[in-house]
Amino acid sequence: SPGVKVVCIPFIAVRTRYRRSGIGRFLIKRLKRPSQVGPYDALVIQADVESVEFFRSNDFSDDIILNSRFRESVVDDNGREILPRSVSCGRRELMCYLPPFDGHYPPMPGTNEWNRSEVVNAIDDEVERWRARSLEAYQSQWTCIARLQQEIVKLRSLLKRQEYGFNKLRKENLSLQKMLLQSETQSTLALIEAWKKETANYG
Q1: Which residues of 170-192 are buried (b: 16+ CB within 10 A; e: fewer)?
Q2: What are the distances in angstroms from CA 192 to CA 178, 187, 188, 199?
Q3: Which of 94, 93, 83, 97 is nearest to 40 (CA)?
Q4: pLDDT tens, 79-122?
Q5: Is the dihedral angle over the CA atoms 31, 37, 38, 41 positive or is it negative?
Q6: Domain at 6-99, CATH homologous superfamily
Q7: In the chain, what are the domain boundaries?
Q8: Is the pLDDT of residue 22 over 50?
Q9: What does the CA dihedral 139, 6, 95, 34 come to, rounded to 10 degrees?
Q10: What CA–CA distance (Å, rounded) separates 189 from 21?
Q11: Contact assessment for residue 58 and residue 26, using Cβ atoms and an 8 Å cutoff
């Protein structure tokens, strides 16, 4: 999304013999620090299926809808995934870490601490953006619902007209069948009567 600072982690791993010793958590903890990677709005990684639980335990989310927002961050202009060959095989899950507001905006010149007023302003800006997006989403949803309702009304009206036409055709068909039966009956009776007369003449 425009204005969203995303840090994409192309690859992170620990040798098998050194796993479960806290190295992975240490690396993730360092990557989360703005002092290491700069201010950001999200850390994004495509995790191997086997490592999904590890990243979940380190506050990464694998929510599909949430991560769809960052899908464009892990592909190039041609739609190809930006991943090294060493992790280009096997199924992966797109996961993201969203940091707190505090500590993710530049400090004032000449200071070593994050400026608190900027953090508050950033929170206010984020809430305002959320409100605007929520309102837009609400309007879009109700627009879609209203149009679907009108479409249903239209389809019901069409079905009623089709049902009326079908019933009318069925009645006409029954009437024609009745007329045909009567005509066939009359023709049969006429033939029988003519046959009787002809037989009587020969008798």
Answers
A1: eeeeeeeeeeeeeeeeeeeeeee
A2: 21, 9, 6, 10
A3: 97
A4: 566 554 334 445 778 899 998 866 555 544 444 455 566 666 77
A5: negative
A6: Gcn5-related N-acetyltransferase (GNAT) (3.40.630.30)
A7: 6-99, 108-203
A8: yes
A9: -120
A10: 105
A11: no
Please state the separation of Cα 40 from the chain's center in Å: 26
In the block, residue with structure tokens 């999200």 = 42
Residue 109 pLDDT: 45
What is the pTM for the complete model shown?
0.51
